[in-house]
Amino acid sequence: MTTRLGLGLPQMRQYDIGKDVPDVARAAERMGYESLWVFERALFPEPATQGLYGVEGLPWPDTYRSVAEPLVTLALAAAVTERARLGTSVLVAPLHVPFQLAKSLASLDAASGGRVVAGFGTGWSHDEYAAASVRPFAERGAALDELIGVCRAVWGPDPVVYDGEVTKIASAVVGPKPARPIPILLAAGGSGRARCRLVDHADGWLPTGMGAETVARQWRELRELAAERGRTEPIRTVLRVNTRYSAKNYEGSDRRPFQGGVDQIVEDLAAHAEIGLDEILVDVQSTVRDAEELKDVAALVHEKARAAGV
């Protein structure tokens, strides 16, 4: 069985969002991509007070200066597609009011015929927290816990009742309901608490393509933890691959995973597919010029990946 393939939608500053998102979404579905994905970047601090991913001295990429709002982007894609699932990898949970986000995701799922996949994380940018978060950075885990609880309640049967730190629902009818239970996937990092949250309360895992050996080890450890905690339901997996595409193959022994030409990207996809994950999300938008090149590269990646048995 081949690994399912998804594609990241164009959200960055080089794209015309209103034109390019529907265009790429339609094209990706025709190519055979089974899912379409968005990520979240709320702002670009200038000057940066914190390095990318919280790593001191690591600069933010210039493409982050303008990133379209993820659910608006998915709504544009939903309107012009019929089959592709619509996923977030990831929404930074504490930047959202839990009730409003739960209702927005339910509405999108109802409108799209049950195609939404909700991927959540806690984020790392102190500047984004200062601008938009509903709880302090130190409470990011608790904020994610509450968001998951609110989503489960709002998406479930009426009357909805929830009593949390931020969200208080005494008893209410909340609609529309999702077309089916929306799966919740988490981008759990290395902390034990984050992994336990995923095993105990989520439907799946959103790893990042950092090298096949690393992802394989993380996946093995997560399954071992699930067995220890008595989880019997399978853990759904969607690997996010952030490519650094080049028109020519990258030369040098220090090439990072998913960096280089299409053949090199597909080679890395094949190595990661052997881990046995359910799906791989390929995001090529950051290092291509425009939507036309994005579609060209995406088509080649899909064609060659399928030829390689991915």
From TrEMBL:
InterPro entries noted in UniProt: Diverse_substr_monoxygenases, Lucif-like_OxRdtase_Rv2161c, Luciferase-like_dom, Luciferase-like_sf
Domain Luciferase-like residues, every copy: 19-242
Pfam families assigned to the protein according to its UniProt record, in alphabetical order: Bac_luciferase
Name of this chain's protein: LLM class F420-dependent oxidoreductase
Organism: Streptomyces anthocyanicus
